[in-house]
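can u do me a favor
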């Protein structure tokens, strides 16, 4: 696969995955097309050596794995499907001052300022009853600009460029209509009908998020960068997905993409839940085999890393400030916010050197807070040696982030050629 083919596929995946539900659906489709067999957690598994499988939970998390059966040295790659965004509240419609707005709640630690004056679409999961009273669910993606959060004019806020703050309750409600007869349930039913789902009696609940309708694209005079929403962490999801699809069936590898990392991972489908652990225990039913596998394997927790910002270089640790398009970033933190240790770092570096791949090191400034990943959580729950790595990016948690057009392809080549 060429870098251009890789990146074109990445842009398409980003545009087609406005929510964790859609990302998981798209990855499941990719795995099915690549010959992976779908499993159901509610059913008995009869795994056969030499096959490859995938399983989803909550429609928003996914695990795929090869099954050599007797091999216990697995390379595992972990990522997350969720990104900071604005979610609709359960009763989302607000009608006042002659317009209709959506009431929203920030999800995760998002940068709010860039959400103003953007064309916003709506996507997610809805649950409803049909005429037989059965409860069903469907994914919807209203891929058009239905909303915008207008800024307050500079004339009405003369300190906007000095010390403007944003009230998360009152300042970020998107405007959607002037029609005060707008009915949210009818609106959703109409959208479902456009998808061919017409037997909808009552809308019960929804998990819907606003998203920027601007497509992912190349940036730079020589296309050096990629700009898109949700690079954190669909970038790693895409790399992990393609990597496991590219290796032979007899190579032991597992890929997991969890939901809810941005809010702490404590959910049934998050890394703090049982999804990965229960999957591994069904793969290795003998406890001794399970422990031997966990202690013989390695987890690469792949998330984004802060590239040195050319306009704010003082925000970075001088000797540990990664550059975009200059190699994969190894993330280290003395207080275990990242799970990297000298053993896993050395294993990764040895593979990178063998594959002639560049690497960099990130350590946050000691006077700034440090984010975390699924790495320490997975290492704690499974007992697997783990390294946290990342792709260098700017604008993390903004509505539109930037990364290099070389780095994701570089990580793909490392993962495909990796030996524990």
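np, heres the sequence
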């Amino acid at each position: 696969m060429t870098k251009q083919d890789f990146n074109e596929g990445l842009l398409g995946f980003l545009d087609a995955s406005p929510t964790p539900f859609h990302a998981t659906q798209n990855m499941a489709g990719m795995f099915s097309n690549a010959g992976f067999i779908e499993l159901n957690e509610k059913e008995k598994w009869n795994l056969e050596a030499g096959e490859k499988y995938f399983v989803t939970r909550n429609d928003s998390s996914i695990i795929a794995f090869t099954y050599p059966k007797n091999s216990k040295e697995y390379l595992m790659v972990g990522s997350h499907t969720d990104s900071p965004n604005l979610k609709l509240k359960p009763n989302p419609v607000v009608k006042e001052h002659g317009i209709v707005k959506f009431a929203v709640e920030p999800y995760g630690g998002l940068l709010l300022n860039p959400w103003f004056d953007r064309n916003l679409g709506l996507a997610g999961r809805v649950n409803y009853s049909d005429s037989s009273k059965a409860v069903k669910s469907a994914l919807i993606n209203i891929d058009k600009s239905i909303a915008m959060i207008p800024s307050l004019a500079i004339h009405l806020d003369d300190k906007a460029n000095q010390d403007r703050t944003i009230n998360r309750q009152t300042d970020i409600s998107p405007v959607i209509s002037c029609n005060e007869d707008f009915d949210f349930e009818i609106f959703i039913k109409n959208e479902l009908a456009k998808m061919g789902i017409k037997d909808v009696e009552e809308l019960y609940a929804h998990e819907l998020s606003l998203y920027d309708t601007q497509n992912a694209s190349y940036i730079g005079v020589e296309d050096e960068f990629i700009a898109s929403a949700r690079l954190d962490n669909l970038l790693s999801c895409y790399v992990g997905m393609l990597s496991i699809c590219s290796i032979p069936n007899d190579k032991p590898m597992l890929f997991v993409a969890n939901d809810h990392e941005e809010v702490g991972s404590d959910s049934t489908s998050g890394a703090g839940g049982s999804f990965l652990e229960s999957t591994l225990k069904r793969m290795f039913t003998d406890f001794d085999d399970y422990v031997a596998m966990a202690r013989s394997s390695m987890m690469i927790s792949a998330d984004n890393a802060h590239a040195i910002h050319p306009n704010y270089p003082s925000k970075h640790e001088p000797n540990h400030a990664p550059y975009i398009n200059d190699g994969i970033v190894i993330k280290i933190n003395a207080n275990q916010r990242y799970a990297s240790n000298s053993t896993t770092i050395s294993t990764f570096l040895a593979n990178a050197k063998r594959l002639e791949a560049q690497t960099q090191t990130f350590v946050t400034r000691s006077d700034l807070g440090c984010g975390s990943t699924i790495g320490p959580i997975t290492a704690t729950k499974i007992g697997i040696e783990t390294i946290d790595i990342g792709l260098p990016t700017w604008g993390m948690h903004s509505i539109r982030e930037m990364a290099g057009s070389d780095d994701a392809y570089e990580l793909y080549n490392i993962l495909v050629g990796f030996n524990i």
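The two ends are 23 Å apart (CA to CA). hope that helps!!
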